[in-house]
Amino acid sequence: MKALLKSLLAAFCLLALSTPTLAQVSSRAYAPEQLRGLSREDQARVIRLEYREQSGGREIADDQLRFYLDQVNRSNWGFSDIKRDIAQSLAGVGGPGPWPGNGQAIRCESTDNRTRACRTPWSGPSRLSRQLSDTRCEEGRNWQSREGEVTVWNGCRAEFTQGWGDAGQGGTIRCESANNRVANCDTPWRGRSQLVRQLSDTRCREGQNWSSGQGRVNVWAGCRGEFARGGNWSGGGSGYTVTCASENGRYTTCNWPPGHGRPRMVQQLSSQSCIEGRTWGMAGSNRIWVNGGCRARFGD
Predict the structure, then answer these.
(1) For labelling, which of 16, 103, 171, 274 has a CA lying 20 to 30 Å from the CA of 213?
(2) Which range of residues forms the domain containing residue 38?
(3) 249 belongs to a structural domain
(4) Which positions carry the signal peptide feature in this UniProt record (predicted)?
(5) Least confident segment among 17-21, 88-92, 201-205, 230-234
């Protein structure tokens, strides 16, 4: 009898020693709501398991995993936030919370570099509001929009909102220096313009490779960007500004008060380029995010 008890005790101890940690219990991702209490390794394991479970066995992309780990450790996302966002990612719809534009966003992702078309709940053009992939999303190169649809390919994964609308009502015009040549672009407003979104790898600096005035934007030396009416245009800004800085290249969010509409970059303060959708954007309706060393002043 004693020998049998010893054998059972030994077997129990062996089973206890081989029991996986919380994040390894099974192929299903069981975890506490507050993932920050786990080690980073276990956080990653839980997120991988949850993605695998929801996607039918697919592996999560490395850049998407890093995005979720950043949200857990910098923005204090819980496990339910991760689960919901993965579900929305796989379904091609927007993340949690209200969004700019008409209050909606959709997510469209080119996984394994495949082409994907995503329906939008609005008619008209769309614009990139938050890039999720390491692969840079560039309109015309790996994403495009048309009436009620966004299409992505070659690894672009991003969130999109309703487009700017008519430039004459406070929207934007695009002006591009192709092959470093000078381009002159007419604007539907008079007076100076401001850079609101840089499209080129070459940094656009007013006076160095772009200028504006008298209903025109001029670009040269590789600057490609989107421009809006400058100064206190009749679109109705209140003059409110906030500075948001990505210190040491870290992801940071800053408060943007409700009622001030969608912010625009008023002045870049860092040597690192601030590019909307790549190094800055909106996280919900009341937070500005910056990353990759972008430091800038934003206003309404």
Answers:
(1) 274
(2) 25-91
(3) yes
(4) 1-23
(5) 17-21
